[in-house]
Amino acid sequence: MMKVEGNVGFTLYERGQIETATNNFNKAHIVGEGGQGTVYRAEIDGTIVAIKRCKEIDESRKMDFVQELVILCRVNHPNIVKLLGCCLQFEAPMLVYEFVQNRTLHELLDFQRNRSCHVTLGTRLRIAAESADALAHLHSLPHPILHGDVKPANILLTEELVAKVSDFGCSTIDEKTQVAPKGTPGYLDPDYLLEYQLTAKNDLYSFGVILVELLTGKRPLSKERKTLTSMFKEAMTDGTLIKLLDSDIVNEDNLRVIHQAAVLASQCLIIPGTARPEMRYVAEQLQQLAFADEVQQDPQPPLVLAGLRFTAEMANTQQGNQIWPPLNSWRPYLTTPGLIAARSDDLTSTLDHTRTKISARAAVEEVRAKRFPQRPQRGGGGGLHRRTRDPNDGGDMEAGE
After folding, report:
1. Where in the chain is the domain with CATH 3.30.200.20?
2. Is 45 a catalytic residue?
3. What angle do CA 134, 210, 170 make, to 5 degrees?
4. Which tens digits make up the pLDDT trace of 96-133?
């Protein structure tokens, strides 16, 4: 392994490490495939990681790609999958992430729809709050990161059902760039489809669809070709929302919270996007709703917003014997002093934000400890109460579609 010039904490893995870890990209190691690449479960230096084999990068994009990777490697947030480094000794770059050992929100919602499990309103709102907090963090960085493909399949869940936003390695950092719409039908912002301009408000729209999905238990696209967002807006206008909601989470005690969450979702879906709130506002509102007194909390709550454990440390960066140097086509992009995107003030800002968030989360944990004085240190299922065991329950990371 080697470090990128400029001491920016960016690990370059050797080709041999990647090939050994994936057993030469053996299909048995594949845990997910999507439009942006294939994900393999692997082990490097005793640590389980997820290796994403990206699509080939155009020559004109390589400098931007490396600069963006440096920024992404510096993102530290308990609800964001950590990017550890990459390997550039293949024509297509290999991204190395922390491995999240469980399912995705997409699968959890499918289990709920099939009545294979019961997911409480408290758990749903908490997952939404954690995901919104992660996106708000990305949007607030010195170089804001726009996800571009926010959907349940890109929200991973740990064993305690802590949310981890993933698959933003090919996201856009510059809002001014016009790009052809990429994403998933049902979650794409109509503004993005019309203007080809990716902004933070597009992520907000996609998140709004997820919030509606959590409240109703329904898929964004139905066989009747009527979108969930259109049905939701009609129900909000007609006063018939109660009929659209998932009956598993509705009771007389929590209707106020559900209504407020629905109003928040409506704000995320406003057209035009300029009228939508900021993601930070949405995250703060959801945090309050998730822990409102009338919301049923899990008997054994999982690790929640405190999430003080960062589940992956940076990979070992000690210089080793480099048998496979980076491909010549990538070498010029690894020697720019400082890699203009990796300025010291970026790191300082990120650390300051992390300290602030940890203090806030510690306060939340203190309140929760008073409400659940007998709570075990680790929850047994984190709000997911299985009724029957799903034969496909394997628990590996899955790439976005």
Report:
1. 2-100+309-352
2. no
3. 50
4. 999 998 789 999 999 888 877 889 999 999 999 999 99
Alpha carbons 233 and 266: distance in angstroms, whole number: 7
Strands 37-44 and 30-34, sheet pairing? antiparallel
Q: Work out the number of other CB atoms within 10 angstroms of the CB of residue 85.
A: 25
Each residue of 27-66: pLDDT tens digit? 999 988 766 778 999 999 999 999 998 877 777 777 777 7
Lookup: tokens for 88: 């550039």
CA 138 to chain centre: 10
**Three-state secondary structure along 262-290?**
HHHHHHHCCCCHHHCCCHHHHHHHHHHHH
Q: What residues have CB less than 8 Å from 214, skipping those under 6 apart? A: 109, 124, 125, 127, 128
What CATH superfamily is the domain 2-100+309-352? Answer: Phosphorylase Kinase; domain 1 (3.30.200.20)
pTM of the model as a whole: 0.72
Task: Provide the 10 A C-beta neighbour count for residue 400.
Answer: 27
Query: pLDDT per residue over 146-195, tens digit each?
Result: 888 899 999 999 988 999 999 864 455 555 555 666 778 889 898 877 77
* Beta-bridge mates of residue 98: 49
Contact assessment for residue 206 and residue 183, using Cβ atoms and an 8 Å cutoff = yes
**Residue 275 phi, psi dihedral angles, 5° rounding:** -90, -5
Residue 257 CB partners (closer than 8 Å, separation 6+): 121, 125, 289, 292, 294, 295
Per-residue tokens: 192: 């993005």
Distance CA 358, CA 306 (A): 7
The CATH 1.10.510.10 domain(s) of the chain lie at 105-306+379-386
Question: Under CATH, which number does the domain 105-306+379-386 receive?
Answer: 1.10.510.10
Query: At residue 368, what are phi and psi to the nearest 5 degrees?
Result: -65, -35
Active-site choice (110, 133, 149, 293):
149
Beta strand segments in 71-112, E: 83-87, 94-98
Please give the residue that has the higher pLDDT: either 90 or 329: 90
Helix (H, G, I), strand (E, B) or coil at 20: helix
